[in-house]
Specification:
Blueprint: H1 10-20, H2 33-42, H3 51-54, E1 63-64, E2 77-81, E3 91-92, E4 96-103, E5 105-111, H4 116-120, E6 127-133, E7 136-140, E8 146-149, E9 156-162, H5 164-172, H6 179-190, E10 197-201, H7 206-221, H8 226-245, E11 250-252, E12 259-260, H9 263-273, H10 279-286, H11 290-301, H12 305-323, H13 328-335, H14 340-351, H15 355-366
Parallel strand pairs: 1-3
Antiparallel strand pairs: 2-9, 4-7, 4-9, 5-6, 5-8, 7-10, 10-11, 11-12
Length: 367
């Protein structure tokens, strides 16, 4: 029989009593694994769930959740229901986590530059909490230390654990024609020091909620080829996000955790209009100063506006050369260069050879 998501488990009922009693304070703030163990030693009457973390503890720096090996290769996937009223023990994952708030509101704490000493003193100064409400979907980068507190009966959070390959062949592959966004999201998920997460506010989207309900049921039933079914459902979710919500995505800078609701829309706008738009036009469109827009682009892409435009021009130009339908003058016009000479100069600087040389080499490889 499938457990109803709305029904508290026996352990959740016990933890709820603890929260309603003397546990409200320590169940509301991030705690390290060491702090958790100390709490249990001092209060052996509290429910002990240390077995969940014991095998993979990382000394004083939190924990890596168990059973990660099976999720590092192939189209690997696992689905869990986040425990309500659970101990907020800080942990991390070597895989990507898709967190969907099915109902209610929870608080998501993500490390924001604290050192271990301040954490062990219990100050928690290095943690930034933000609310996730019903319909919010978060893609959390690997190895980010975090914890979610769900402290109401109606909070239902589904965690879908995904391998890198599944993200590569699903989410990122779907963005292959949107170079700038694909590179941006890839940097968020894989580059150390980049943003820690991508948040998609899908609100009361009935399709999304229904699909995650089906994902949960498939995980519970575990019928023949259920993992293959889960992969298909998750890839549908990825398509839905890109179709409906890519421009609403919110990202956070990893050190300060300052969210910026505009950067994804700006990058998408540049991706579409790169061959005919200036920095001033983009700044005017989004009501920013040119200086502010330049700083934002540099912060989130590590590139200047000119570098971004040039890379987009050359990537598209290279593809048009490979297609072989247009001559050099037509390609130059298509990607927004002044003339064939200007395009040739930029192409050679980018790829180390002229467009004619690249066309010949590509033709030889095709024969």
């Amino acid at each position: 029989m499938i457990r109803k998501l709305e029904t508290l488990t026996e352990r959740e009922k016990k933890m709820k009593k603890l929260y309603q009693g003397e546990g409200r304070e320590f169940l509301s703030c991030p705690m390290s694994f060491v702090e958790y163990k100390q709490l249990i030693r001092e209060h052996p009457e509290y429910p002990d769930v240390g077995f969940v973390y014991e095998l993979c503890s990382m000394a004083r720096l939190g924990t890596t959740v168990p059973e990660v090996e099976a999720l590092t290769n192939g189209d690997a996937i696992d689905v869990e229901v986040h425990e309500r009223y659970g101990y907020p023990v800080v942990h991390n994952h070597v895989y990507i986590e898709m967190i969907y708030v099915y109902s209610g509101t929870c608080t998501h704490y993500i490390e924001s530059g604290a050192d271990s000493k301040s954490e062990m003193k219990g100050t928690h100064s290095g943690w930034k909490g933000f609310q996730m409400k019903a319909g919010d979907l978060c893609l959390l980068a690997p190895n980010v230390r975090h914890v979610i507190t769900a402290l109401e009966d109606d909070v239902i959070v589904l965690n879908v654990l995904l391998s890198k390959q599944l993200i590569d062949t699903g989410f990122l592959a779907l963005l292959k024609d949107k170079y700038l966004l694909a590179d941006f999201f890839k940097n968020i998920l894989y580059e150390k020091g980049a943003s820690a997460y991508i948040l998609f506010p899908t609100g009361a989207d009935p399709w999304m909620k229904q699909t995650f309900g089906l994902i949960y049921q498939e995980e519970q039933k575990r019928e023949y080829a259920y993992r293959e079914y889960l992969v298909l459902y998750v890839k549908q979710v990825m398509i839905h996000l890109i179709r409906r919500y890519q421009l609403q995505a919110v990202v956070a800078e990893s050190v300060q955790q300052e969210t910026d609701n505009h950067v994804v829309a700006i990058l998408a706008y540049i991706s579409v209009n790169y061959n005919q738009v200036s920095l001033k036009q983009i700044a005017d469109f989004f009501h920013f100063s040119e200086a502010h827009l330049s700083r934002m682009l540099k912060k989130y892409t590590s590139k200047t506006f000119v570098q971004i435009i040039t890379e987009l021009q050359m990537k598209h130009g290279k593809e048009l050369i490979e297609e072989g339908k247009l001559n050099l003058a037509q390609i130059s016009q298509e990607v927004g260069c002044f003339d064939a000479s200007h395009f040739t100069k930029k192409f050679k600087k980018q790829f180390g050879m002229s467009p004619e040389e690249y066309r010949r080499r590509n033709a030889e490889l095709s024969d």
